[in-house]
Amino acid sequence: MQTFHNIIDGKPVAAADGRTLDIVDPATGEVYATAPLSGPADVDAAYTCAQRAFREGWRDTTPADRMAALLKMADAVEEHGPELVEIEARDTGKPKGLTLSEEIGPMADQLRFFAGAARHLQGAATSEYMAGHSSTIRREPLGVIGSITPWNYPMMMAIWKIGPAIAAGNTMVLKPSDTTPASSVRMGELFNEILPPGVLNVVCGDRATGAAMTDHDIPAMVAITGSTRAGKAVAESAARRVTRVHLELGGNAPVVVFDDADLDAAAEGIAAAGFFNAGQDCTAGTRVIAHASVAEALAAKLVEQAADIRFSRDETDGSEDFFIPPLNNPDQLAKVSGLVSRAPAHAQVLCGGSAADGGGYFYPPTVISGLRQTDELVSTEIFGPVITVQTFDDEDEAVALANDTTYGLASSVWTSDHGRTIRLSRALDFGCVWINCHIPLVAEMPHGGFKQSGYGKDLSSYALEDYTRVKHVMSTY
């Protein structure tokens, strides 16, 4: 049985009152470790150390100093990549090959991007905007950041929070999901060999721990990646103290496929975007809206794609097959199973449709056609390996169906008509519009949505700006 710990002021510590959480391997459903169940005293200790580290030196570091630290952190991620993958796979059930190729490299790259961005802050030019007065802009760190990360990408979401916060000169307290703390704790250990004590603290716990994170006087901003429900709770709590919030929340991405699209390429790309990580991705391409003339053919091709996908428990070293992990926990398995079991009579479950045998929380790739806009499966963020297919007759209807959601994170358009891509990229009400692809991300471009998908950006220079404040300095002469 493994034992994880908090990291406060650079040291491993248990929860103050000794309470722990059981950590379950979702591939087997068995407890394999314990982690601290932190309370308000632990959160307060972490925030106090972070505040001291900020005031006593970290905020005064130069961009070059922070760049050097972030580059060392990126090197540490690469050097310990295989170890981190083993830890992540045990915690999440993820396939090791895909996790190594799709997460470790991008995580190191993202840290290196923010290392460079730390030295490229921007603002209005110093000038005389009033006669006899000179004005300049200071861009400063906010202070202490409280960060809360989800269970679908524990390692990568931690990096998305750590990179811009540290680059901007902030200190932070990071709380990973209660079900997946392992990789965050290990990265905390590695990064504390590089950063001064108190700059990066890791506190494990449950929802109550998260509430203590937001209901505290010290943090200048609370940043969360999670569900819309969780984001609203964070925003409500932070509002009582007028604390900034940075919210990357749920999604229900439309995938609009026109009759002139390359259906083979579309099916392959949509299956990858919808089934990768078992659909546990806020940008997952699971809500397909296809032209009526090609919807049946596209659905059949998606079924073919699903047949080639295997579970991560079947992975062997060196295999290049497409594997998906189990769902994270029994509640998520019950949610996905319930949504599919309640599919209306006019829907057709073309493949999958029930939990897999063999232990763990596995759910097979599932394709459901014949759905309508008002159906629960269409209006709900499924967060599982379930692709739904509905139809449209013309471009205006496609846009209306796509935008008819409370979410606004991501979308994609599949067509060979260049003019149409321009029109839809303007018309679709989502923070990202992919054209003839779905789900690629790069460090240089922002990730974040509209409406109930939240506000604030991860990645890119826009994220760095979110972790700073702007001060106007004016003097006479």
What does this structure look like?
This protein is of the alpha/beta class and 477 residues long. It folds into two domains: 2-249 and 453-476, Aldehyde Dehydrogenase, Chain A, domain 1 (3-Layer(aba) Sandwich); 254-442, Aldehyde Dehydrogenase, Chain A, domain 2 (3-Layer(aba) Sandwich). It contains 15 helices and 25 strands. The chain has helices at 40-55, 63-79, 81-92, 96-117, 154-167, 182-191, 207-214, 228-239, 263-275, 295-307, 330-341, 376-379, 395-403, 418-427, 460-466; strands at residues 2-3, 6-8, 11-13, 20-25, 30-36, 127-130, 133-141, 144-148, 171-175, 200-202, 221-225, 244-248, 254-257, 287-291, 310-311, 323-324, 348-351, 366-369, 386-392, 407-408, 410-414, 432-435, 450-451, 454-455, 468-476. The strands form seven sheets. The protein has a seven-stranded mixed sheet, with helices on both faces. A six-stranded mixed sheet has the order 10-9-8-11-12-24, with helices on both faces. Strand 6 and strand 7 form a beta hairpin. Helix 3 (81-92) runs antiparallel to helix 6 (182-191) and helix 5 crosses helix 15 (460-466). The protein starts with a strand and ends with a strand.
